[in-house]
Amino acid sequence: MQYSDLVQEHFEHPRNVGIIEPADAEALVSNPACGDLMHLYMRIENDRITDAKFKTMGCPAAIAAGSVTTELLIGHSVEEVLKLTRADVNAALGGLSPQKVHTSVLAEDAVRAALKKYRQR
Amino acid sequence: MPETVLSMRQVYLDHNATTPVLPEVLEVMLRYYREDFGNPSSVHRYGRRIRVALDDTRDCVADMLGAPAAAIFFSSGGTEANNTILKGVAAALTGRGKHLVTSQIEHPAVLDTCAYLAHQGYTVTYVPVDEHGVVDPEAVREALTDETMLVSVMYANNETGVIQPIADIARLVHQRGILMHTDAVQAFGKMPLRVDELGVDFLSFSGHKLYAPKGIGGWYARPGAPLQPLLHGGHQERGMRSGTEHVAGIVALGKACAMAVSDMRQEWERQQQLQQRLEHGIWEQIPEVRIQGAEAPRLPNTTNVAFAGVEGEALLMSLDLQGVALSTGSACSSGSLEPSHVLRAMGVPEAYLYGALRCSLGRGTTLADIEYVLEILPGIVQHARGLSPSFTP
């Protein structure tokens, strides 16, 4: 199992671990195939993400995906992050191996699910 | 990740994956790469003196199994032995029934070969295990039909170390006049295995699980048991396994067997004490922990431990970063994203299925190694649980 330096960095020093209570946007998503769980939280002010936190049960790539996703969210507008895809997460991690690409899908799912709830409220 | 003030140790605890070649074993090998490089099939003296070394090794392995030397065959390893036996019995018994019985917890070398045979038109019954990971001989008996030609149940499981009641199973199988195979790759060299006591017709073994090199192993076949070779060619191994023999590997295997026999009991007890210290230390320090097969007869070197709320590969990487090498049957590291088929078969609860680690100690493992693991593991599990949405302390 080969990990990129970025995955290893985010695994060893994950950013923005935690919860936001109450959150403006949040979602808990899972990948039933491998048991990965990702819980994503956002604080949104004036349609801007001012804070994001995550918790992940999963392999190092899944943890790294959560960590890097919070960095891709903070400071951006809701409109911008609606365009966030798995490819962005993948690129931010220096390219995931084919076996681990599913973790970037999990991250994208988490972002979309969280924002869907935000826009519906 | 909390900074550790411990000096980092390199600790290898993955002996079920492979073992280092012992210095004494490496020593006996070298001359068969240098001055004694002959092909054993050669008529001249370069070949003749190699034959003696091969015969000596065969005697050594045969003694260890309580078998005649003519019943021992060498191959490239356990996988080839398993393939030979399953496919070779099927080929030898063509026209006699096309059903095999095996267990749900076998090594892929058996399961995948059974799947291949199923593809060729054979039917396979996969007998379940109980929550301790043990096959019930009665369940095997119930699976037998008039079409069954072979039963294959592993001796000790590679992920959990759980030992199966092979002698009991073999007895029931033989009552129906059916052949019995056991994949003894993990047990061979760790405990006495006498083929007459076990009552098996076939038994697989592998060198690199007992401090011999990779690329060597073999099988026991009861004289007269029907078996066709997998490899055709120069008729080596009395026609049962063609291909120029891996002489250095065979000699190494012989030396490794001799060493295993000489201190088998002491090593078993020594490792069992380390295993107990490890498991006790884990129980004491870490909550919501589950040791798979803890209640079953087990190899003294294997601990399969699962932690609720965390994923195995993450633990593995953290341990690796601190110098400890373990393994896991966890989903994400298996390439197929499926959790361990062995743990699934044992009915391990969902909460623990993804957070399992396998720790397998060996000859070189010391108490200091175990204490080091016990010092760093709680922090590693705690850290992973702190990251997890599914664990609320």
Q: Helices, strands, pairings?
A:
The complex is a heterodimer of chains A (121) and B (393).
Chain A (H helix, E strand, L loop, with lengths): L4 H8 L12 E7 L4 E10 L2 E10 L2 H14 L4 H4 L4 H7 L8 H20 L1
Antiparallel strand pairs in A: 1-2, 2-3
Helix pairs in contact in A: 1-2, 2-5, 4-5
Chain B lengths: L10 E2 L10 H8 L14 H21 L6 E4 L2 H15 L6 E5 L4 H12 L3 E5 L9 H7 L4 E5 L13 H10 L3 E5 L11 H4 L3 E5 L10 E5 L25 H16 L1 H22 L3 E3 L10 E6 L4 H10 L2 E2 L15 H5 L4 H4 L2 E5 L6 H21 L6
Helix pairs in contact in B: 1-8, 2-8, 3-4, 5-6, 9-13, 10-13
Detailed description of the structure:
The complex is a heterodimer of chains A (121) and B (393). Chain A has 121 residues and is an alpha+beta fold. Chain A has one domain: Sufe protein. Chain: A (Alpha-Beta Complex). Chain A is 44% helix and 22% strand. Chain A is built from 5 helices and 3 strands, in the order αβββαααα. Chain A has a 3-stranded antiparallel β-sheet, with helices on one face. In chain A, strand 2 (36-45) and strand 3 (48-57) form a beta hairpin. In chain A, helix 2 (60-73) packs across helix 5 (101-120) and helix 4 crosses helix 5. The mean pLDDT of chain A is 93. Chain B has 393 residues and is α/β, with parallel strands linked by helices. Chain B folds into 2 domains: 11-20 and 263-387, Aspartate Aminotransferase, domain 1 (Alpha-Beta Complex), CATH 3.90.1150.10; 31-262, Aspartate Aminotransferase, domain 2. Chain B is globular. The mean pLDDT of chain B is 95. Classes of the chains: A alpha+beta (121), B alpha/beta (393). The A-B interface holds A 1, 3, 11-14, 17, 28, 31, 33-39, 55-63, 99-100, 102 and B 1, 309-311, 313-314, 317, 321, 330-333, 335, 337-339, 350, 353-354, 386-391.
